[in-house]
Design brief:
Strand order of the largest sheet: 1-2
Largest sheet: 2 strands, antiparallel
Oligomer: single chain
CATH architecture: Orthogonal Bundle
Number of strands: 2
Number of domains: 1
Radius of gyration: 20 Å
Structural class: mainly alpha
Helix content: over 70%
Number of helices: 14
CATH topology: ABC transporter involved in vitamin B12 uptake, BtuC
Order of helices and strands: HHHHHEHEHHHHHHHH
């Protein structure tokens, strides 16, 4: 217990929490933009997987993790456009096509990886993005290293929270956007282009989800492997529900899941008797607990998951 409660352990735990919460937060914000426009996209895991592969490949080929990061984001858009066309244009069932993306995208990513590198057991690594400490602030004792010594994408992820709040609550465009997810027929009658808004939501969702996936292979670990996403897309989906479809709530949920993930890794190091598989279950058990006890008390946008056809009256 002395090892657990010393200052170094707590500082490292909080530092890992912020880093591990980052991809969950980015992808949860992606889902928030999607659901605010009435699109329930459960294909986040698949988009992340494809984004992580594209990000890794571009980073490996160019030696530039920044290029890899943005390539992964645009790869996420490409995959999510399949979902968008099927659900927006054709009015297909959103949950079904979200699951299809979860099956299709990781398989494509694995295929491309094996085509490019061949079937090999050797570990192939790319250059990771280096932290960018914020001058002065990063030198504050204890707090500085935890909050102000990260890669730029971490700062961007947490900056997205207030920007998203301001967009949805303080701007006319954000209120129009929200109206599409609440009552699209009324929004259309007011001159809001519902179909266009849904496509914009799909582009934003694909970009951010791909960015979250690319973060894993350009900022977090230096290689790609099948299963690198490890269910983070579903955790991000639960973070949106736990966060009550609000940016601040999503941030708290992402930090909670990031904390449990960081904690289980450190408990694995400290504990020699308990099987590591049980400790690795902690983040997923936390997700189930959150969904069971907090996820049913408030529904999302009223038109969530419902297809919209412009010709209907």
């Amino acid at each position: 217990m002395t090892t657990i409660w010393n200052a170094t352990f707590i500082s490292e735990l909080l530092l890992s929490m912020i880093r591990m919460a980052t991809p969950i937060l980015i992808v949860a914000i992606a889902e928030l933009y999607s659901e605010k426009a009435g699109l329930v996209n459960i294909g986040l895991d698949g988009i992340m997987a494809f984004g992580s592969l594209v990000g890794f490949l571009v980073s490996y080929i160019t030696g530039n993790p920044y290029l890899g990061l943005f390539a992964g984001a645009f790869g996420g858009i490409a995959i999510n456009m399949v979902y968008a066309v099927c659900t927006i244009q054709l009015g297909a069932e959103q949950i079904v096509y979200g699951m299809a993306i979860n099956i299709f995208a990781p398989a494509i990513a694995s295929f491309i990886y094996k085509i490019y590198f061949g079937i090999s057991s050797s570990l192939i690594s790319a250059q990771l993005m280096k932290p960018l400490p914020i001058p002065v602030l990063s030198h504050i004792p204890y707090v500085g290293d935890v909050l102000f010594n990260h890669t730029p994408i971490v700062y961007l992820a947490y900056l997205l929270v207030p920007l998203t709040y301001v967009f949805f609550n303080k701007t006319r465009a954000g209120l129009n956007y929200t109206a599409v997810g609440e009552y699209p027929k009324a929004a259309e009658s007011l001159g809001i282009n519902v179909i266009r808004t849904k496509y914009i939501a799909s582009i934003i969702c694909g970009f951010l989800a791909g960015l979250g996936g690319a973060y894993l292979t350009t900022c977090y670990i230096s290689t790609y492997s099948d299963g690198v996403v490890s269910g983070r897309g579903f955790i991000a989906l639960s973070a949106v529900i736990f966060g009550r479809w609000a940016p601040g709530g999503v941030l708290l949920a992402a930090l909670l899941f990031g904390f449990t993930d960081a904690l289980q890794l450190r408990l694995q190091v400290l504990n020699s008797g308990m099987p590591y598989q049980l400790l690795a279950m902690i983040p997923y058990l936390c997700t189930l607990f959150v969904l069971a006890f907090f996820g049913i008390k408030k529904a999302g946008p009223k038109a969530n998951g419902k297809p919209y056809f412009k010709e209907e009256r």
